[in-house]
Amino acid sequence: MVWPINRNYQAPTFDAGRGIKWDWGRRTYVMGIVNATEDSFSGDGVAGELEKAGALAKEFQSCGVDVIDVGGASSRPGADPTPVSVEKERVTRIIEIINAEVEIPISVDTTWTEVAEAALDAGATIVNDISGFRLDPDLPSLVADRGVGAVLMHNQRGLKHRDVIDDIKTGFSTSLSIANSARIDAAKLILDPGFGFGWSVQQNLEILRRLPELAHLGLPLLIGTSRKSSIGTVLGSNVDERLFGTAATVTQAICAGIDVVRIHDGAEMRDVVNMADAVVRQDKSVG
């Protein structure tokens, strides 16, 4: 089933920052990952390697990535907690470098107000919160005060399972209620169903199959399947052998109507997105 591209968004455009606006429904946008960590699950952490981070950002920009997402704490299961002060230092230094090297927007992947505030001061324009505003009660106010965009993810870790989509809808409802209480404009929000966060392999695949069931929310959706362990389990592959598996999940997500994909491999996934958009979105993304 292909999700109708001409669906109703609560707001037709999104202010990504740096004078750039995204038009929802016209094409799929690409978020490139810069892990400012030493223990990234994907093995691509650039903690302390400022030149490497800057070079990666320029590579992302050159191949058409739309936004660069910088995170300073590993979110993989079992990872040791990162002190907030360490996370803040990691992301701030790298965002400052990237901000000087590229012209595309930057998002900060964090759940903490202290980190987000420093990142915004350094040049980030979007907050990407894997807790969906449910961890740090001060973060929604910061987002509202700064007038920046936010990605709110549903995180199923530690929660009881009922039905995959119902669980995601419940999480979204809580996050959106928090955002509304903080007077955050819905036009500033993107929702992420949380592929890989508290789900089994089969449940992750079910999320991809049932994405159209989230259409009624009227908000743009982001998904991050890149190199994740579910792909490795299905294919029996190591993390550095999941390029084609990632391409398949990105294509499926686009066919289901996803608006933003979060990826590690810029040039390859940009081609996947462009080709899938040319098929699914027909005349909107080509010519």
Structure notes:
It is a single chain. The chain is of the alpha/beta class and 287 residues long. The chain has a single domain (13-279), classed as TIM Barrel, CATH 3.20.20. Helices cover 39% and strands 15% of the residues. It is built from nine helices and ten strands. The strands form two sheets. It has an eight-stranded parallel beta sheet, with helices on one face. A two-stranded antiparallel ribbon has the order 1-2.
What is the top-level CATH class? Alpha Beta
Strand content: 15-25%
Work out the count of structural domains.
Answer: 1
Number of extended strands: 10
Strand order in the largest sheet? 8-7-6-5-4-3-10-9
End-to-end separation in angstroms reads 25 Å
CATH topology: TIM Barrel
CATH architecture: Alpha-Beta Barrel
The assigned structural class equals: alpha/beta
Contiguous runs where pLDDT drops below 50 for at least 5 residues: none
